[in-house]
Amino acid sequence: MPSADALHVSNLIFAWTKTAPPTLDIPSLSIPRGNSLFIHGASGSGKSTLLNILSGVIGAQHGDVNLLGKPFSTLSHRRRDQIRADHVGYIFQQFNLLPYLSVIDNVLLPTRISSVRRRGLPRHSQKLVDEAKHWLTQLKVAEHLFDEKVSRLSVGQQQRVAAARALIGSPEIVIADEPTSALDQQNVDNFMNVLVAQCKSINSSLVFVSHDLNLSPYFDATFALKSPQREEWV
Questions:
Q1: pLDDT under 50 in the chain at which residues?
Q2: DSSP letter (8 states) at residue 88
Q3: Nearest-CA neighbor of 23 among 53, 2, 1?
């Protein structure tokens, strides 16, 4: 029987040094499959650190992270990397697109790395290029831009390309790290409506981090990180 939670965290503690107070101290946090969670907190409260732990980039000194019913935090770094590539779509704050590649090729990158993402369901086309075009269209990226180098796009357009890359292959979890911070309010509203709808269309759990509390109504649940006791170095 599959776990009802996409992610579950228990007794999580993380500090950057042995003598410093914890950056993160989370007794329990759960994200049901197909639901959306908004995580907010002040600068230095550990938002990006938490996302790195949830996605397996770094480990915590204490506690457990369970991802899709698997004891994620006890796995080797290499195994966590593979699970992340197969099951997690990531939208970075700075998008992390490859400027010398076209829009289509940027969206296809996860399918080059993961055979699971190549086989992702529901499949909207038998051709991966058409699958990439499907997500770009859903995210309202104009067709005449598909073959352009991504560096020629506006910030708002690049953001949508980054979201399409996260969604291709229908990963079970989509993680977004402050992806709206560089957008004006109209573009923020447009992007949020589209992102939330598209995650629901493939039953992906959306974990979204931001300092902007105005975004919370878009989500099923919210989680507040405590104010930092010291400056966080990332």
A1: 1, 230-234
A2: E
A3: 53
**Could you read off the pLDDT of 7-55 as tens digits, one per residue?**
999 999 998 887 888 889 999 999 999 999 999 988 878 888 999 899 8
Is residue 34 in some structural domain?
yes
Q: Is residue 79 part of a domain?
A: yes
Distance from C-alpha of 151 to C-alpha of 162, rounded to nearest angstrom: 12
Q: For residue 154, give every residue at least 6 positions away whose Cβ sits within 8 Å of its Cβ, in sequence order, or none.
A: none
Question: What is the count of structural domains for the chain?
Answer: 1
Q: Is residue 157 part of a domain?
A: yes
For the beta carbon of residue 87, count every other beta carbon within 10 angstroms. 23
d(CA 124, CA 144): 20
Query: Residues 169, 112: contact at Cβ < 8 Å?
Result: no
CATH of the domain at 97: 3.40.50.300
Q: What domain range includes position 57? A: 16-224
- The pTM assigned to this predicted structure is 0.90
